[in-house]
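Morning run. Coffee first, then this:
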Amino acid sequence: MKGLRDATVRCVGGIVHDDQGRLLLIRRANDPGSGQWSLPGGRVEPGESDETAVIRELREETGLDVIPGTLVGTVTRGPYEIHDYACTVSGGVLTPGDDASAARWSDAADLAALEAAGEVVDLLYVTLRDWGVLPWG
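And here it is:
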């Protein structure tokens, strides 16, 4: 019988702000959270480090090259244990791809409006607020 830990799916996410303080968001094309805005990220593949997974996932979902920094926080959503890292853009062009149907930079007012409209993945706004990483632009 598998234990709870065996059922956990390790995932990573990238918390990326641009020079104006806007936050990078993607609209999820697939479940969980299909159609909702979220941080870019995804599953850590077997044998892959969190750093490698963040770089790969952000490139696949946003077209951007990033340099992962410190771990900002970890959340558990169902079977997914998501480790979110602060990242800095080092290149690329913002283009949605892979599991993202759209990608954009979101300022504080935009993110608040998306949250109020129920278009943001559950608890994202509260989590980012508690971690002190909401957009400031």
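Strands lie at 9-16, 23-28, 37-38, 41-43, 64-77, 80-92, 100-106. Good start to the day.
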